[in-house]
Write a structure and sequence with these properties.
The protein has 302 residues and is an alpha/beta fold. Helices cover 40% and strands 19% of the residues. The chain has 10 helices and 9 strands. Strands 3-2-1-4-5 form a 5-stranded parallel beta sheet, with helices on both faces. Strands 6, 7, 8 and 9 form a 4-stranded mixed beta sheet that branches. A hairpin with a 7-residue loop joins strand 7 (240-253) and strand 8 (261-262). Helix 1 crosses helix 2 and helix 1 packs across helix 7 (163-172). It is globular and about 65 Å long. The protein starts with a helix and ends in a 13-residue tail after the last strand. Residues 128, 131, 137, 139-141, 184, 186-188, 224, 257, 294, 298-300 line the site of xanthosine-5'-monophosphate.
Length: 302
């Protein structure tokens, strides 16, 4: 790919398509950040980056985003309660993705109406499209989206790119290092790292476990490293029986997310992670390490 040509062509395309104001769905990951910078170059202050705080994101994500994009017309929308209540009772993984995709779009429509914007820009990349259309799983921004929406157009400037190409564009745009190298994070966030119904308690547990895994495995530079809450099991803490959560630790390497292999981590590192998770998070009784490549597993749990 000729990165500089891609950048010039994409800026011209966005300029040409967006008449007036546009909003961009910003999550803080490399795809939506690249898309935001390209769109800002194209339409400047007519661009409104919108970060929806679903409550399913990493710890402190909203604060970080506010800092990184402080020079733009960023809107942070607190939608934690709406997501939690929409997900109540939802246990089927595809249903979960559809509920999330639909709520994202409804909220973007509300914000766009308030701003007077007719266009939605999204950082969808090629693997999102392939996995959704191949029937593997409905990525929230493709197969999980409702078919009807109020926008004149949804523009997806990165939809032909793989992740490594997006990172090349990020570097060419001189984006901050943490963004260029950031691990992929799924749009539906921690909802797909909780097997079964999403509840406030499970969210709190999995959020803290994810932070521990990310911190402890940063030095290995994995494609992705995260924690998922996969069920309950009996344990004993002190002298007491606990029927606590089971956390699965997943760390994979991959080139494009389409296939992946697990990292052969040293036992010491796994020990540290296990000891921190069971020690720091009440009600976790068991930690396992997932040694399944993709295929047959996918990277995320749902
Ligand atoms: P899977 O789980 O299908 O994931 O092996 C492949 C890559 O895609 C990410 N992923 C998503 N990204 N919206 C996204 O933006 C989604 O709905 C979604 N689901 C999975 C996943 O984290 C991995 O990097």
């Amino acid at each position: 790919m000729d990165t500089n040509k891609f950048i010039d062509d994409t800026i011209a395309l966005i300029k040409d398509k967006v008449r007036g104001k546009g909003i961009i769905a910003l999550s803080g990951g490399v795809d939506s950040s690249v898309c935001t910078y390209l769109s800002y170059k194209a339409i400047s202050d007519n661009l409104y980056p919108v970060f929806i705080d679903t409550g399913l994101m990493r710890i402190d994500e909203a604060e970080e985003i506010k800092k990184t994009f402080k020079d733009m017309n960023i809107r942070i929308i607190d939608a934690k309660d709406r997501f939690l209540s929409a997900l109540k009772g939802v246990t089927d993984p595809e249903e979960k993705r559809k509920v999330i995709g639909a709520l994202f779009i409804r909220i973007f429509e509300e914000v766009a109406e308030d701003i007077g914007a007719d266009y939605l820009i999204q950082g969808t990349i090629y693997p999102d499209v392939i996995e959704s259309h191949g029937g593997i799983k409905s990525h929230h921004n493709v197969g999980g989206m409702p078919l009807k929406y109020k926008f004149k157009e949804i523009i997806e400037p990165l939809k032909d790119l793989y992740k490594d190409e997006v990172r090349m564009v990020a570097r060419a745009l001189s984006l901050p290092e943490e963004i260029c190298e950031r691990m992929p994070y799924p749009g539906p966030g921690l909802a797909v790292r909780i097997v079964g119904e999403v509840t406030e308690e499970k969210l709190d547990v999995v959020k803290r476990a994810n932070k521990i895994v990310e911190d402890e495995l940063k030095e290995y530079k994995p494609w992705q490293a995260f924690a998922a809450l996969i069920g309950k099991g009996t344990g004993v803490k002190g002298d007491e029986r606990v029927y606590g959560w089971i956390i699965s630790v997943r760390a994979v390497e991959s080139r494009d997310g389409m296939t992946a292999d697990y990292l052969k981590l040293p036992w010491d590192t796994l020990d540290t992670i296990r000891s921190r998770i069971t020690g720091e998070i009440r009600n976790v009784s068991r930690v396992v390490y997932d040694v399944t490549p993709k295929p047959p597993a996918t990277i995320e749990y749902e």
